[in-house]
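User: Please write out a complete single-protein record containing the residue sequence and its fold in token form, without commentary.

AI:
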Amino acid sequence: MIKTSRPRRGAARPPPARPAPARPVSGTARSEPPALSLVRASLGDMKAVDVREFDVRALSDVTDYMLVASGTSDRHVKSIAERVVMDAKQSGIRPYGVEGLREGEWVLVDLPDVLVHVMQPRVREMYALEQLWAPPAAASSAEAARPRKPAAKKRKRPGTSKLRKARASGKSAVARRRPRTRP
């Protein structure tokens, strides 16, 4: 009887070996993802305001690039985000998700290796993503350049200093107060 190398019926077959995807070693040059140039073009076409781009490869494993842009109104923010999604789909890049499109204050478009934040200016100022993701030297210089409001003086409640003195001396605070007179 001749034996064959065929597995028996019902026996589990090992999955075919697939080569592991090539990941760059830290510090080596890597080309930009195709979604990045597409997003830049979409934001430029839709006249997004104050576009900032961050290379966050060293800071995050979630994404490689993050773009933050502003729109002038909720409709503008929505249309910018919709255009980014439409251009991505037309070029064969499927977005992982889109959040906030209904409200139009802050829309997040998650593409492969690129996150796009499109915000209204007041929301962008409130959350200050640029300070969170900028390199430490750039963040400290940007913070130093921004004018600060003078600290407000802490107001004391009226009469608290007299109460503290009375408690410290051991006398009753009630006895030290002046009686109120009604007119």
